[in-house]
Amino acid sequence: YPIPNRKILLQENPMFFFPAPSVATQESWSWEQYLKEQNAIAAPVELFSKDQSFPEHENGFQVGMRLEGIDPRHPSVFCVLSVAEVCGYRLRLHFDGYLSCYDFWTNAGSPDIHPVGWCEKTKHELHIPKGYRKDKFVWMDYLKACKLQNAPKKLFRNRSSNGPVPKEFQVGMKLEAVDRKNPSLVCVATIADIVDDRLRVHFDNWDDSYDYWCDVNSPYVQPVGWCQENGRTLIAPQGYPDPENFSWPEYLQTTQTNAVPAKVFKMRLPHGFLPNMKLEVVDKRNPRLIRVATIIEVDDQRVKVHFDGWDHKYDYWQEADSPDIHPIGWCDVTGHPLEVPHPNDVKILPGQAVCPTPGCRGIGHIRGPRYSGHHSAFGCPYSDMNLKKEATLHDRLREQTQAHLEADSSHSKLKNLYSLNFNGKHETVNSQPRHVQQAKCLKIKGKEDIDLDNLFREYSAEQNQQALHQSVFLTSMSAHPSRELPLGREQHCKLLPGVADIQASQVARWTVDQVAEFVQSLLGCEEHAKCFKKEQIDGKAFLLLTQTDIVRVMKIKLGPALKIYNSILMFRNSQDLTEEDTVTGQDVTE
Ligand SMILES: [Zn+2]
């Protein structure tokens, strides 16, 4: 064991960690009484799917058991997983050979997990633990050598209520699908895989991280021609030569593919959730916790969730079919702790270190389950400084070279299904990791350097302006406005030379004149410098600007606004890195 940094030892080591006093009233808290007090109603059990509702079986998994399952960040990737923790009907799963910060929680009945040997049987590629050679990995040898146990088949009680996918749905067929991370966009898509009653939807010529699994009745998948019939804009595949005049018949012909027959689509009924209904929801910021929550808004496919007793800044949209929402009483029935709304008068013992975030009991850590708790804003998943970090953490494969994935032969074999280029020839799919959705409707061609400005100028002239606008601003209107850069950091460094070297701490000291000077230095933004001066924006204010501020309030056009906003994101990100380096620079060995 290397000796951990002393500060971490004192602050974050589980041995020294005591959570803030558990709410004294927690034991006596009851849904019945709470609903009465709040004059609220519970979301009716009938609205929940089998994956969300009360399980029919016990959770038989045990810590240490090995299995195969989908990486939630990369839905096309099946991995070697182990059970790291069992809580009620839930499991914390760990990627063998990787740090525990990539662990994730799932339900024991999740259709995403399979017994050892499943991949081989169903001809799916298994991503083996880091450090093993692909051609040398044999499950049974691995289990034997490491004295490990595989999770018995009988524990995988995946629901199969919908029956198998109708045979009209076949791998390789085309359809129109909603981009789940960006629901205003409907894009050209392919069925990339079929397992039991679910499809994996892949967006043509985009990387697999945008894929998702859904059942055939999902409102996210629609037949070819649906957009045209419903007056929606269909987003053409990346690189399609004339995206405004995308033609399905032509595309099907050049790619030599078929559309899923329209008549086999049966859309399920609307979700039925309504505002003010109460439920139990996994807190995505601290996914070991399930909280008392209220639906405060709904749209066609989603519900906006508020955690009772918490500030509204923590509200977020959740898909109505997410396996992380449950009817009231779910925790009780499955033996999972339920985080109830905290009273205002939590008593803190003298000298006790307590997380400063209201409502937070110091459970969990922004760096994942490596630490069981935290005492300060640095580790708190709810502190302002960490709210914007969510997306930059916990992507296992992003930190490896993308080449690792690309080098896998069977992976690329699958890819070839939809990587036919528009002359009908095979072409290497652009493997640039695209960190954010908005890039999806921009035509980013391979590794060419295209000036951001040109991209946006080109687009703003087009019909798709609305879609682009929505896609670019969707994140700013959703829960986490400032979390990501629309393109990879490397790309930004090239597009915004000079910006990468400036630290947020420097920017924070800028005067109004210095801010204006900086804006003036950005190509294409010269004329907007005076606007910043007029609004008296100094360095600190500059760092806090949102996309909405820049476009709506300052009335700056989309192209320059994005350039300015991206610079701000770059500055903010540089600060993140510095903080992380100094605070948790040293890894604690598990
Ligand atoms: Zn906290």
UniProtKB/TrEMBL annotation:
Alphabetical keyword list: Chromatin regulator, Metal-binding, Nucleus, Repeat, Transcription, Transcription regulation, Zinc, Zinc-finger
SMART domains, per database record: MBT, SAM
MBT repeats: 29-129, 137-237, 246-341
Compartments, record wording: Nucleus
Gene Ontology biological process terms, A to Z: chromatin organization; negative regulation of DNA-templated transcription
Assigned GO CC terms: nucleus
Molecular-function annotations in GO: chromatin binding; histone binding; zinc ion binding
SUPFAM superfamilies named in the record: SAM/Pointed domain, Tudor/PWWP/MBT
UniProt-recorded name of the protein: L3MBTL histone methyl-lysine binding protein 4
Highest taxon above the source species: Eukaryota
Domain (SAM) ranges: 510-574
